[in-house]
Amino acid sequence: MRDAKSKKRDAECAATLLWPGALRHRASCIAHGALLLVHCVLCLLLAGCANIGSPEGGPRDYTPPRVLRTSPEMGAVNVTSNKVEITFDEIVNIKDQQKKVIVSPVQHDPPLIRALGKKITVELRDTLLPGTTYVIDFSNAIEDNNEGNPLDGYAFTFSTGPEIDSLRVSGIVLRASDLEPMQHVLVGLHSNLSDTAFSRLPFERVTRTNDLGQFTVMGLKPGRYHAFALNDADGDYRMARTEDIAFLDEVLIPTTATFTSQDTTFTFDHRVDTVVQAEHTRYLPDGVLLTMFNEGYEQLYLRKASRPSASKLLVQFGAAIDTLPELRLLQPQLARSDWNRLERTARGDSLVYWLTDSTLIKADTLMVQMRYQGVDSTERIVWHTDTVRFGYRKPRYQVKLEEEEQKEREKLQGELQHLRDQLAAGKPVEEADIRDLEKQLEVPVPKLKLTAVKSGTLEVTDTIKLKVDAPIAAIAPGGFHIEMKRDTLWVPMAGVPEPQPASEYDLFTYSLPMALTPDSTYRLTVDSLAMTSVYGLGNDPLTVELKVRALEEYANLTLRVNVRDSAFVELLDGTGKVQRTVPVQGGVAALPNVLPGAYYARLTLDSNGNGRWDTGNYAQHLQPEEVYYYPKTLKLRRNWDVEQQWNIYETALDLQKPEAIRKNKPEKRKNALEPDKKKKKPGQNGEEDEEEEDEFNSQSFGRDTYSGNKYRDFQNQRR
User: Fold this and answer.
1) Which residues sit opposite 103 in a β-bridge?
2) Residue 260 lies in a domain
């Protein structure tokens, strides 16, 4: 701030400078004016310094690291050093080295790979093989330090011999059951065409798949090869029966072909730079499809025999069993043979024996002779006989709880006796207090718990189901009543069926086998003691109202498929969960009465006609059953009939599965030039008509596609 005296002096100087006759003050005023100018400049500078802000940097870096030089040179021959050094134009890191970087041929001792500043060094600890082409495949593991821009598909090649083996085989690995891209699994080749090479020898040439399941095996000599994929859990580069595998029945013969194309080069921000005519070498085959599966091998043996509660025995095997074991009760001995009820899990490897005799339930220990099937050292199925001890002790918390309940009961009994003594002595006592204590001391009569599996709204495809908490011994005829609502009246229905077990494996779910009328309301009434458990307990009465949807609330879907063989179609929801399964009959998969919404469809060529997808078997040269996806969203609206043509070979197999239900997606790049477009999810009622955006800009890998000979035949017919 400037004081009043200074301001006055400024005014005088200004007046003097403007008055030509006032020469005697001009020199001094000019000097003061100069000082004033300096003062103003300083004020402006200080004001600018007071507004502190972040300094603006340059444009964002979207370009990946660039290789400046290597030692030895890329593609060098007659190399003797086991150390490779790669220098970049910026500081780099290696991301996910263990699952992305791989050296071919297979290294028994893992190489030492380090990133330090602008350099990456690779030290091979195995002795270099003579006359061999080495490939260090980094995939997209190399990234710049600042922005994380990956260098895609970088592989360094050199040879210990006089020439580089340059042939390649490319393709994709998909999971056979659902066409998910198999990320970072091994793909290997064997020139030894014996069936046992896959299980006994490590791969000769090897690579890993990328985020899209794609692969390229490089450094191949001319020859004939078998191709395999392996999720190598034990790290030995060879097949184990418990690992995920894929194999190709065809013999691959790597070759090359030359073609000319008009190539467009782009700037880093996707603008066209130049268009040139270029000659290219195509490495064949470049469309190999490997469908990965797990044989589901499990060794058949008695894994566990236990008694999880007083009333049941649990017997678990290492694999599903075809023949039930034979059980003979040794101690305590019983005359009756029906001392248990068997429950078998749907997977088939676990058995639950529910004890039906109170003597056995109360016994601390049961001795049972068990005769069952298992495998010997030669993998043959043989019979074994063991004596198994089933002991049971109540858990400590349950014992403690019962002790506390007993103490509380004794306390209440003491209080009740005191009140009764007071009353007998003629002293005033509230009878309500006595009745309250008597009520608290009443022992509840145990009942069979009976509930409706589903209440409220039912679908027209549903059945009425009931759930119990113990195996059932008897069902009373006429104990179940169903009424249908007519206007405001309940009209009894005649001929109500008796409940039937919902499944051969389930002892606790029962269904009433009757068709439901759309747009109707039912009332189910179950009488007391209509069902009696093996422990002699009956149910309490049950009443439940059920409303069946009207047909106008559904959509009807018909898929016309170019398949005449045995096949079935699964209707999937937005999470990929199966909602309905129907067979293909005469090239038609009919799906009536589907709730409105967005759905997806999967077709399985059911070669053995058992109604489910079956895995493959390498020893039998059996490939897994083929799976196809309808490539678009099926949007179903209320009271609509939708008919769709579906050629399962028309779309590339690796592009068939819709992005919305694909699980194994590539990594999102945080520095994309353009932000991903937000895709609108189809509404619950199928109201959204916009096509889905592929947020990863996925494309098929080869020039053709991956779906086996049937697809290639179809494409050849179209050309």
Assistant:
1) 136
2) no
